[in-house]
């Protein structure tokens, strides 16, 4: 029996042209303005259609056929504008390329955006942990800006990463024990 190996892409939808968000003490810094909540109208099916159309546009029928059976949105959170997408290991670069060329969300939303692939992982668990870590970090950063009083709190939470200290790269590929790559980057 053959085991299908997948990659999980943790993505974040950024809104560079959104109206500036305001807080109690004034305006939020530019770095946080991009991280706006996504409309509830964005569904997993709409995100899949966006990815499939992008892959078909860039790679034609070949690309659409390669990702057709394996592409799946495993998690979508409109409040954090985060999603986890599953695709086969051998074709995740097609999806990543298509996501890099997205400039706006599909028709019902028609909102200008940029999709940032934050992490590519061999397991969904590592992608989830990274999403949680980043969400905590952004909430604490916003609290620091609004409240201004808890300087050590941000450093405490970032360094207490629930026992996961082995992976320091944000955009790297995480290798599983059975997912080894040769030195030239090709799969076994």
Automatic annotation (TrEMBL):
Gene Ontology process terms (BP): maturation of 5.8S rRNA; tRNA 5'-leader removal
Enzyme class: hydrolase
Broad class of the protein's primary localization: nucleus
Region ranges (Disordered): 159-188
Enzyme nomenclature, EC number: 3.1.26.5
Enzymatic reactions: Endonucleolytic cleavage of RNA, removing 5'-extranucleotides from tRNA precursor
Alphabetized UniProt keyword annotations: Hydrolase, Nucleus, tRNA processing
Coiled coil residues, start to end: none
Molecular function GO labels: ribonuclease P activity; ribonuclease P RNA binding
Subcellular location: Nucleus
Domain of life of the source: Eukaryota
One GO term describing the cellular component: nucleolus
PANTHER family on file: RIBONUCLEASE P PROTEIN SUBUNIT P14 (PTHR15441), RIBONUCLEASE P_MRP PROTEIN SUBUNIT POP5 (PTHR15441:SF2)
Role description: Component of ribonuclease P, a protein complex that generates mature tRNA molecules by cleaving their 5'-ends. Also a component of RNase MRP, which cleaves pre-rRNA sequences.
Family: Belongs to the eukaryotic/archaeal RNase P protein component 2 family.
Protein name, UniProt field: Ribonuclease P/MRP protein subunit POP5
Lineage, top ranks: Eukaryota, Fungi, Dikarya, Ascomycota, Pezizomycotina
């Amino acid at each position: 029996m053959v085991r299908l190996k997948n990659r999980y892409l943790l993505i974040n939808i950024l809104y560079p042209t959104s109206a500036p968000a305001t807080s109690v003490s004034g305006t939020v810094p530019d770095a946080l303005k991009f991280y706006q909540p996504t409309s509830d109208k964005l569904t997993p099916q709409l995100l899949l259609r966006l990815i499939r159309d992008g892959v078909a546009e860039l790679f034609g029928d070949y690309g659409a056929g390669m990702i057709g059976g394996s592409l799946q949105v495993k998690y979508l959170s409109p409040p954090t504008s985060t999603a986890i997408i599953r695709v086969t290991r051998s074709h995740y670069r097609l999806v990543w390329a298509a996501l890099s060329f997205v400039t706006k969300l599909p028709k019902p939303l028609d909102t200008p955006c940029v999709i940032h692939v934050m992490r590519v992982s061999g397991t969904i668990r590592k992608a989830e942990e990274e999403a949680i870590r980043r969400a905590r970090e952004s909430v604490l950063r916003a609290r620091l800006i609004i409240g201004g009083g808890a300087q050590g709190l941000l450093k405490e939470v970032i360094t207490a990463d629930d026992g996961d200290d082995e992976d320091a790269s944000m955009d790297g590929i995480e290798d599983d024990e059975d997912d080894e790559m040769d030195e030239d980057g090709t799969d076994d």
